[in-house]
Every structure is written in C-alpha cells, then in structure tokens.
Amino acid sequence: MITLYINNQEVQVPEGSTILDAAKACNVNIPTLCHLENTPPKGLCRVCVVEVEGARAMAAACATPAAEGMKVKTNTRKIRDTRRTVVELLLSEHDGDCKVCDRNDDCELQELARELGITSIGFEGEKAPSKIDKSTPALIRDDGKCIKCRRCVVACNETQGVGAVFPQGRGFTSTISPAFDCNLDEITCVQCGQCAAVCPVGAITEHNYIENVWNAIDDPSKYVIVQTAPAIRAALGECFGYEPGTVVTGKMVAALKSLGFDGVFDTNFAADLTIMEEGTELLTRLKNALVDKKDVALPQFTSCCPGWIKFAEHFYPDMLDNLSTCKSPQQMFGALAKTYYAQKIGKKPSEVVVVSIMPCTAKKYECYRDEMYDSGAKDVDYVLTTRELSTMVKQAGIDFKLLKEQKMDTPFPESSGAADIFANTGGVMEAAIRTAYEIVTGHEVPAQQLHIKPIMGLGGIKEASLKIEGTLPEWSFLEGVELNVMVIHSLGNVRKVLEEMDISKYHFIEVMTCPGGCISGGGQPRFTDDSVRQKRIAAIYAEDEGKELRKSHENPFIKQIYDEFFEAPLSEKSHHLLHTQYTK
Ligand code: HC1
Ligand code: SF4
Asked: Which positions, given as ranges, span the membrane (predicted)?
C-alpha cells in the first residue's frame, strides 16, 4: 500500500493507483471530463489538474501515479483558475446552446461551469464544425457539441470492441466520428448507445421520440399502450432523486397512467414467454443433436439483445444459426399486443399503438427491423429510453415522489422473478435453467437453490456446469449430461470469447451487449459506474427473491395464454409471432 496526503488528509491506496483514485478513496471530488473507470488514464481534458508539493508543473490527477509520501492539493486558487481557463476554452469552441440542448441540466460541462462560477467566456474561439447525424433510429450525433474527451472512443473500441467512432483530422476541424465522414447507419455501429451513456455533453444522445408518443396519446382514434422493460424499475427513480437501486415499479405504473396511456403492461410478462419458447428451443436442439444425431447449431445463443444481434450480423455472420430464433421480449410483447390483446379489446392492429420504455437505444433500432411486422402492422411503434420517460413525466408536471403506487393492467398483470432478472447479466440464463431443469426432471427446485452463483455478478465472462440427474423418461437422453453454460456481457468480451476460445463444449451462451446487462443500457440515467450497476443488480435480485412466483412456467397468465392462443411453445402460431430467423 502507498500512503499519501490529499489536502492534508492521510490516505492509503494500493500500488498502481493514481492521484484521482486516492482522492476518491478519501471522498475528495476532483472533476474530470474524460476519465472512465476501469480504463487506462487519458489525461486529455486537463480539468483534473492538481498541485503536487515539490513538482514544477501541475499534474493531471487521472494520469499521475500516487507515490509514497506525496502531498497533493486539489483546490487551491491556482487550480481553480486553471480549471476555469480550461473550461472556458472548451466552452469557447463548443457549438451548443444549453437552453435547447437535450443535455440541459444533465450535462457535465454545464455543471462544471456552474461549479467554477463561470458567468462569461473570456475567449472568442473558432467553433468546431457542426454536422448532425440523425441516420439511425437510435442515436443523434452532433460534432459541434463534441469536446473531444474520447470517452465514446473508449466505450466503443475497448468496452464494445466495435470501433465505430474515433478521432479524425487535426486542430479545430478534428472530429470524433465514423471514418470517411460516414453516418452511423453506414457503418458497423450496433446502436448500443454506450457512447451516449458516457458522453459528458450533448454530442451523442438518444434519438428522441417523445413528440411522436404525445401525438399518439392525443389522437382519439388510437389506443395507446405501453410496456416497461425489466431494468427500468431499478433505475427510473434516479431521475427523481432516489438512490440508485430503489425499485419504483408502482410509481412508474402510476406515472404512465397519468401520462394518458390506455394500458400499462410489463415486458416482464413477455420475458416469461421468452423463457417458455427459448427453453423449449434449447431442449429441442439438444434432442436433435443427441438423439436424432442431426447437424444442429450448438451452442445456442440468447437473442433478446438487439445490439448483440447486429454485432453478430456484422462481425460473426457464420454464427447466426446459433442464435435462438426467439424474438426479444420487447418484440414478442408487440406482436402479442397487436393480435391477442387487440382481438380481446375489439381493435385492429393498426388502431393500437405500442410504446416501449427501454433502458436501451438499440431497442429503438430493433423495432424498425423488417422481421418485426408479424402482427400485420409495426409490432412496436415507438421506443423511449428511461431518460425520455423521465422527461415526459417532468413535462407533464407530475410529482413522481408523491404518486400512489399502482399495478400493471390485465390480461398480463403478473410476471415471475425469473423475468425480473432478465435485467442483469446472468439473469436470462438463470431464468432459463430454472424452467428447463423442472421440465426435464419434474422436480421442484427449492427457493434457496435457485441462484446459480458462478454466473452472478459483474465478471465479464462467467461459466457454470450443471449435472442433470433424475430426468423424466422422455428426457432420459439428458441423464448424467453436464450442461455447460456461459454468460458474457460487453461486446468486447464477446469478441474475446469468439476469437480466442473453443466454445464447442458449451450448450447455451447468454450475451448482453452492455456492461452488467440492461441495468446499464445506453438509455439509463447517467452516470453509471460499477457501484451504481451493483446497486441496480442487487435491487433486481431482491425483487426476484421477494416474489412468490419465481419461475416463468409457474406464471398462471402464461399458462392461460398458451391455453387460449398459442397452444404450446414452438407451435405454428408461436413460430409466426414469437420467432424469427436472422440470415447473412
Ligand atoms: Fe432488456 Fe429484454 S432484458 S433486452 O436488457 O430480454 O432493453 O430491461 O427489455 O426485450 O424482457 C432491454 C431490459 C428488455 C427485451 C426483456
Ligand atoms: Fe459504438 Fe455503440 Fe456508440 Fe455505435 S452506439 S458508436 S457501437 S458505442
């Protein structure tokens, strides 16, 4: 350990720590606009300058190693003046108007200018060129607002292994953008929005559909329903001052009803449906491979994450047969809403508008895919992020904290704990195993044994082996089989697995594009670091553990929908509405 002094406060940190780490360890805030945790320091923005006793020049705290006996000052007049100059220079070339910016009141640059007491800008700078790219349904990029901090470059290249954006050109005309001045829809961008999640300003934001949704709500000829993804409930509260990891399901439902939606439903119901379909698909693939000796694509990969689907299409098209044919829960819900539910309420698919609240920007892209019109109309009409929902609530003047909790509407009022845990890495796999194990053995898994510890938590590549014993006669081909499963999150880790590992021994692999899974999707409240991720994940597991229904196949409304509509998993009707095939 190293002992050093920050503002005369003694602090101990492990070897290899930076001054920024040491300050954090003793709760001293040093501002930074470029640093991202778990990534190498960049020292680009120079906002984190500090004075180190005996050093000739000020040091960037994010890039300076902590040393034994070091004496650091983080808030002298010289430091404040320097930071003010740095921020004024950034503002002088920033082509943004806070009043009309999507990030107004949620902008790190604006916040820093306020903290530093900047009331005028002492420099007349050349403005960076403003090119606005609205080419994708997921994201909007504005070069003019970019402060070249390169957080998005790190998120896209290192975390996601995509490499869609990087520095181009030099001087004032330099940009952080796709190569050859392309738009995002012309390159391999998977529209995950991790760039937008880490952008400190309004240079990359979600493509906003709030006005479209208000218009639909105001249109008397439309019946507008909304579904909420598993991860929203553990994060939305942050937009209204709650601590990360506060579950606000009941208030969220009440807010959506106040906004004027005709029906408020849970994507979690469709997550339970996904488990019925995807679990049955896995067992069918295993039977075809082990009993009928057919040439079957194994391991089966989960398919609920649209960023992952797009990544596979761009980079690993030979793996597409390995993807489950299940649509994502979002899209299953849309297809169900415009058929089964529309029939129940006597409406045509075209009269029903389906809005999704998702933690994810790629979901905006997913609903426009050609495969997603199986109801006879666009199955999901508009996708709003958690952040956009909070904006709508604020626009409507609703005091979120004062709302009385309400329940989701029928005919999909309940979902299982297995559906809750879709929100975090490892959850889809655990949910699938809960159901598959009981189908195959007929034995109930006791509540204390439902979690599969090796695939929980923030590890990027996790695995487990589960020995199947005591099968029912029809599943005897699985007796004694070790079911090998893997769970991966962040596409950079997926690339590592697919490039460097032999995956032939695995039967089922879960992939989630974003770090930690949907709980830190590109549309969640900013700023998400590992401590926030852990709190949201803990909240989701607590939801699951607090439920009586913890397995998808036990959900009585799932049983009802198979009785009334689909007949059985993988039936002809379910193939038509709930499944699709991705082709090269
Ligand atoms: Fe997700 Fe999913 S879990 S992909 O992370 O399978 O976005 O929350 O809605 O569709 O259910 C996202 C979350 C979400 C789908 C489900
Ligand atoms: Fe890269 Fe994802 Fe941003 Fe596209 S959306 S530029 S893939 S981080």
From this structure: none
How many C-beta atoms lie closer than 10 Å to residue 393's C-beta? Answer: 22
Is the minimum distance from the CB of 537 to ligand 1 under 6 angstroms? no
Ligand nearest to the CA of 372: 1
- Of the pLDDT bands very low, low, confident and very high (cuts 50, 70, 90), residue 583 is confident
121 & 14 share domain: no
Q: Which residue, of 168, 189, 206, is where some domain finishes?
A: 206
Give all strands of the β-sheet with 2-6 in edge-to-edge order: 9-13, 2-6, 71-73, 49-52, 59-60
What is the amino acid identity at position 62?
Answer: C
Output the pTM of the full model. Answer: 0.95
**Which residue out of 146, 154, 194, 199 has the highest number of ligand 2 atoms within 8 Å of its CB and is therefore the one to mutate?**
194
- Answer yes or no: is 387 within a domain: no
| Pair (433, 517) in one structural domain | yes
- What rounded mean pLDDT belongs to the chain? 95
Q: Are 496 and 488 spatial neighbours (Cβ–Cβ below 8 Å)?
A: no
Q: Is 359 in the pocket of ligand 1 (CB under 6 A)?
A: yes
Q: What is the pLDDT of residues 57-85, one digit of tens each?
A: 999 999 999 999 999 999 999 999 999 99
Q: ipTM for the complex? A: 0.92
Contact between residue 326 and residue 277 where contact means Cβ atoms under 8 Å apart: yes
Structure tokens at 517: 């899974």
**Protein residue closest via CA to atom 2 of ligand 2:** 192
Tens-digit pLDDT profile for residues 241-289: 999 999 999 999 999 999 999 999 999 999 999 999 999 999 999 999 9
Pocket of ligand 2, beta carbon within 6 A:
139, 155-156, 160, 162, 164-165, 189-195
Token duo for residue 574: 């379910």
Report yes or no: 552 and 428 within 8 Å, Cβ to Cβ: no
Residue-by-residue DSSP string for 491-521: HHHHHHHHHH---TT-SEEEEESSTTSGGG-
Domain-located, residue 468: yes
Judge whether 407 lies within some domain: no
Which of 168, 187, 192, 309 maximizes ligand 2 atoms within 8 Å of its Cβ, making it the mutation to test the pocket? 192
281 is catalytic: yes
CA distances from 521 to 163, 259, 423, 548 (A): 18, 24, 10, 28
Q: Which of the following is catalytic: 93, 351, 371, 545?
A: 371
Tell me if 41 CB under 6 Å of ligand 1.
Answer: no
- The reply to whether 277 belongs to the active site is no
Domain limit, last residue, from 150, 176, 206: 206
Let me know if 51 is a catalytic residue.
no
**Dist. CA 270 → ligand 1 center (Å):** 10
Average pLDDT over residues 423-431: 98
The yes-or-no answer on residue 37 being catalytic is no
Dihedral sign for Cα atoms in the order 112, 116, 120, 124? negative
71 & 98 share domain: no
